[in-house]
Design a protein that fits this description.
single chain; 375 residues; alpha+beta; six-stranded mixed β-sheet; 16 strands; 35% helix; 25% strand; elongated
Length: 375
């Protein structure tokens, strides 16, 4: 990656370090730590910024703390199955984004009431428990009455019962980062709803999340805000690294100062990454379909690999719908994405060429709606 030209470096030096950061700042502050705060609330941009920092900032020269928040989003671990982890239909209805991060671990819910904290270090200096102890110290410095502890699983608990933070990490050949959440005043109702999967009959070797009771820090102390918490964490980090307490603001969309960051962002928001990286799984369901006082049992079996349907069998256990129609749908689905949109397109295309029979069309739509409901 080329160095920024001298003119841009001069511009940086003339700016207040509490307002802006550039690649020049990251390069010129050798031998020190750095505290960054993202100006974005977009999950893909912030995860892309994490990837960029992991790729281009050499931790042997400095350690970096990144603070960031997102609009409503569900973030799954690198090796997880989204259909197994969350309610995708509800998320689509509520406008909740789905994202897959590059680190492992379980599924978490983000919104503007949740803080995300990322510690970038060398592989040698990686200390997940030490990072959590830093956060505990920061919280104790502003609210000493709070009872917060780190568990053996490296989560943070409030009152030894309620989870307020989950952790995950990515360890490279020479570098590493550890990121964690911190619940301040998230929408607990939406959190519990979107993290409850309605999908049944899934068999997968994907890493499952471990359910836990959660609680917002705000419920324990209504005077707490995300800004107060972030300032406390930044202050504690600065104290330990002998900094002057400046928080440098960074815009993940600004490719002029973060060259190539858009490449990371675009990959993270692609279907192939979010859904296509899902480990191979299968779906086996038997369900009832009804139309005009008639009912039938449907058996559905699918094999999905990299988000694409590799095998499909749909069987109607009666003469409710001609078997050739079900066979045709199963054949058409093979090779398509495990997606309600693609299934709807295939179903509508078939209706345009099949006989113009209103009852037949209505039954077909009922069947396809049931198939789409599992996606």
């Amino acid at each position: 990656m080329p160095y920024l030209h001298a003119g841009l470096r001069a511009v940086w030096r003339g700016l207040s370090p509490a307002r802006h950061t550039t690649l020049a700042a990251l390069r010129d502050l050798r031998g020190s730590a750095l505290v960054l705060r993202s100006l974005s609330t977009d999950i893909y941009e912030n995860l892309g910024l994490e990837d960029w920092l992991h790729e281009y900032v050499e931790p042997r020269d400095r350690q970096v703390l990144l603070l960031w928040r997102n609009c409503p989003a569900v973030v799954i671990g690198r090796h997880q199955n989204p259909w197994q982890e969350c309610n995708l239909k509800l998320m689509r209805d509520k406008g909740v984004q789905l994202s897959r991060r590059r680190s492992g671990g379980g599924t978490v819910y983000h919104d503007l009431g949740n803080i995300n904290v990322t510690f970038f270090t060398s592989k040698k200096s990686y200390d997940r428990r030490g990072n959590l102890e830093l956060i505990i110290s920061a919280l104790n410095s502003i609210r000493p009455q709070l009872d917060i502890m780190a568990t053996d699983r490296l989560d943070l608990l409030l009152n030894r019962t309620f989870k307020i933070s989950g952790s995950a990490s990515k360890i490279g050949r020479t570098t590493a980062y550890h990121h964690c959440t911190l619940l301040c005043n998230s929408d607990s109702s939406l959190l519990s709803s979107v993290l409850c999967t309605p999908y049944q009959g899934l068999k997968s070797n994907a890493t499952p999340s471990t359910p836990a009771s959660v609680k917002n820090l705000w419920e324990e102390d209504p005077t707490l805000t995300c800004d107060i918490l972030m300032d406390a964490i930044a202050a504690e980090y600065s104290r330990r690294h002998d900094l002057q307490g400046q928080i440098l603001l960074v815009d993940p969309k600004d490719v002029s100062v973060l060259p190539g960051v858009d490449r990371f962002t675009q990959e993270l928001k692609s279907w192939d990454w979010i859904y296509g990286k899902t480990p191979k799984f299968s779906v086996s369901r038997t369900f009832s379909v009804d139309y005009n006082l008639t009912r039938a049992e449907i058996k559905l079996n699918m094999n999905i690999n990299r988000g694409t349907i590799e095998g499909c069998n749909i069987e109607v256990l009666s003469d409710w719908l001609p078997s050739e129609m079900c066979d045709q749908l199963a054949t058409d689905l093979i090779g398509s994405r495990f997606s309600p949109i693609e299934t709807m397109v295939l179903a509508n295309a078939y209706l345009r060429v099949c006989p113009q029979d209103r009852i037949l069309h209505n039954k077909w739509n009922v069947l396809c709606e049931q198939v789409m409901a599992i996606m």
